[in-house]
Every structure is written in C-alpha cells, then in structure tokens.
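Now for a concrete sample entry.
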Amino acid sequence: MTAPVSAWIDRYPHDRALRRRAEIGFWAAVLLVQAAFNTLVSWIDLRGAGRAVAAWEPLLWELTSALVVAALIPAMVAFERRFVLRWGTLRRHLPWHVLASVVYCTVHLVGMWALRHAGYAALGERYQPPGWWAQWGYEYLKDVRSYTLTVCALVSYRFLLLRLQGEARVLDAPEPPAPPALQEQAPTQDAPAPADPLEPPSQPPQPQQRPERFLVRKLRREFLIAATDIAWLQAEANYVGLHVNGHDYLLRSTLTDFLAQLDPTRFVRVHRSYAVNLDAIAVIEPLDSGDARLTMKDGSTVPCSRRYRDGLAPRTG
C-alpha cells in the first residue's frame, strides 16, 4: 500500500492534469460542504426568528453564493501569484490584498444577487434583497474572512507543492567581480614592468563564471543536477521551473535573471515564458501563425513565438 501512495506523491507535482483535477475537486468539495452547512444554519436561524420562508430559499441563497465564489477562485489564484505574500513582500503586497478583498466582496454580492433574481424568477417568485450598503457591510465581514482563508489555503498549497516538487538552488553561484582596486596587482620579477609607472598593468578580461550544478531539496532528500541536464525552463510567477529528465524543479528567480547566468550558446529564450537547451531540441515544427512548436528529446513540447524564432533557426541549423 505504501508504494502506490509514494508513487502518487512523486507523480503529483509533475502531472498537471492530475493536479488540476485534484485542485478542482478540492474547491468543489469545500464549497459544497460550506453551502450545505450554511443552508442548515440559515434555516435554523430563520425558523428560530419566526420568519416564514420557503424551504428552498436558504438553499438557493447559499448555492448562488458558492457559484460566484467558485467563479472568483481562478482570479484569486492569478492575483495571489502576482502579489505573493511572504515576509519579504508583506509590506508591499498586503495593501493590494486589502483592496482586492473589497473588490471580491463587491463582485460576490452583485453576482449572487443577479443569480438569485434569476432563480426566483424561474420559480415564479420575486427576490427582494435588503439595502445595498447594509448588505455590503454585512457581507464584507464574512467575505474578508473567506478571502483570507482562501489566500492562506493558496499559500499553504504552494508551500506543500514546493516541498513535493523540489526546490533548486545554485550550488556554485558565480562570485561577483572583484573591485578594480583589488584586481590591480603589482608586477612580479617575471612580469615586465608597465611602460608608464603611474598606470597599473592592464588585466585580461576574466571569463564569466556560470553555475554548473544545482542542489535540489525534495522532502527529506537532497541531490544534484547538472546545468547541462536542463532541457527547458519555464517562468512560474516568482520561480523558474527547471525541467530535467521528465521532472521539474523550482528555483527562486526570474527567467530573465537566471538566463543571464547560463551559457548563451546553449540556452536561448524562445518565448516570453520559456527558454530551451538547444542540445535538447528534437524537432522544430513551424505553425501557420508564424510561431513554432518545439518537441524536445524527452517528448515534451515547448511553444516558440515568432519573435524569437528567427534567432533560434541559425543556432540550431
């Protein structure tokens, strides 16, 4: 029983279809359970208050609310990726999330009112909501908690996925160039003296050091990967996905900054969000749009936009 579970855990971070099904299933289950629970609580509260409402009304209220929240979750996922919350970004990004919670509540309220009007009309009834500002204030107190819990769930999920997927870091990061004053060296006995004693001897340009190995930490394991084993790279929010032998590992960097450290004769950008190892390309398939599809030697495919296609052909030609 342990082997299948372990295989599923190893496959989960790299299987996007599996991840998508699990993520949709998770949010669907959460929203349905929440709607069922809130329907029961609303029905009990209304009965205790002596308000006469049809049995289907609390169910319609909660289902319309859940449907709007479900429609908002993809936007929240994209927003949270753009304004990631961690200690280093908390002061800068937290105000944006406060503003987003206001937008979230407004869209939620307008959306569920529209669905309720449609639902009541379909049943031959008329929906009469309370005043806008009174209802908005009441809903915001609930929605700000819902927004916060959703963001916490996204942050926790990303942390767990990072541990399952494996986080890479440069093992032998290039050292920054030494200041000119430190690079100056006095002439030795074997070296000829400079023509002008007031000028220091010129130094030959130092070749740029490039990372050759990466340390990947995955759960309780650590292992090395070589830079030459990277088949392609993908920008993923504040990370770069390194695709190596059918697996992808995340490295905290932007694609532009990381490509500046790699060998430009081997790694080239082919898309705004993708770069490839030229040695790992198997087939270049032109598309009618002017773009291209790159099939890598491991069977994966990478998009190539026409903006970068002209620079790719002579290098691989």
Notes: The radius of gyration is 28 Å. The chain has a mean pLDDT of 82. Residues 167-172+208-316 form a domain with the OB fold (Dihydrolipoamide Acetyltransferase, E2P) fold (CATH 2.40.50.1020). The first strand starts at residue 167 and ends at 170.
